[in-house]
Amino acid sequence: MRCETCGAPAILLGNACVFCRTPVADSHAPADLLDYLAARLPDAKLKRFGLRRRGPVRELSLTVGATSFGATVVRGRLQLTPSLAPAVWVDRLLTALSEEAAGDHDLRARLSRAGWKLRGTPSRTSPPSELG
Ligand SMILES: [Zn+2]
Fold first, then answer.
1. Residue-wise over 8-18: b if at least 16 C-beta within 10 A, else e?
2. Every domain of the chain and the residues it spans
3. Cα of 100 to ligand 1 centre, how many Å?
4. Does pTM top 0.85 for this prediction?
5. Which of 22, 36, 66, 96 could form a disulfide bond with 5, CB atoms 3.0-4.6 angstroms apart?
6. How much distance in Å is there from the Cα of 6 to the middle of ligand 1?
């Protein structure tokens, strides 16, 4: 399942898409998260399934600031470095990217194009969390 707003694999943090913060109903950690991230993070190092390197991404690594992020698909499941729940891992990644983007206009534009909400921005207008 995917977020209907930004098209990301639906990973929730606080009942909202971890990428764009749109409230979403359901969550799991899909392996195609890596393909999604790889398409939007050209600086990430990738390993792919398949002889011609055209298959799905099976390993992604990216250093942002002082933190090395890694994600590997092992038997269809994600193994993440740092070892965190997927939503927390992505949130940590976006936080680090946001800090980098503060001094990198290209990165900022790229994240904005991806539809991702940069972290740590002064405006804290969180949507009302009403049920129904
Ligand atoms: Zn989203």
1. bbbbbbeebbb
2. 30-114
3. 21
4. no
5. 22
6. 4
